[in-house]
Amino acid sequence: MSCTTGSSVNREERQKSIGVPQRCWCGRKVDLLVSKTNENPYRRFYRCQGALQRQTESHLFKWVEVAMAEELEEQKVEIGKAFAELERMGGDCIALGRCLKSQFGSLEARVCQLENDAKLREAEECSNKRKAVFGAYRHLGVAVFVAGGLALVYKAFCG
């Protein structure tokens, strides 16, 4: 048995499948069989289930080692694509990290500014409270002084 069975372009297009085949062009499942010929003893191959009934048609036939080599080559291509995507994502992560670091620095500076503004307001409020308390003490002292004087005047006249 050979890997190509026919010279027609149509037949080659029908038969073409990359990697381990699942179905033939006709839609039937593919069997995994072992060759019993003198040319290829015990060599494994894939063949369409309908190939024996329709020997005049070119149904799927592929040696296992050919299918495996194609499958590995296809996986190599996919792994290359995955690595390229990972490299792109790594670059995106680095750029995102730089952007976040910049934004974090800006936010950190803004937080420091807000903390300083809050401390200044707190100091101003505290200063204003001291002034109010001192002013209240002054008024209280005058009231006590006046009240004390009135008490003395009252004692002098009434007492």
Automatic annotation (TrEMBL):
Keywords (A to Z) from UniProt: Membrane, Metal-binding, Transmembrane, Transmembrane helix, Zinc, Zinc-finger
Source organism, top-level taxon: Eukaryota
Entry-linked InterPro entries: Znf_GRF
GRF-type domain location: 24-67
Regions crossing the membrane: 137-157
PANTHER family: ZINC ION-BINDING PROTEIN (PTHR33248)
The protein, known as: GRF-type domain-containing protein
Organism: Brassica campestris (Field mustard)
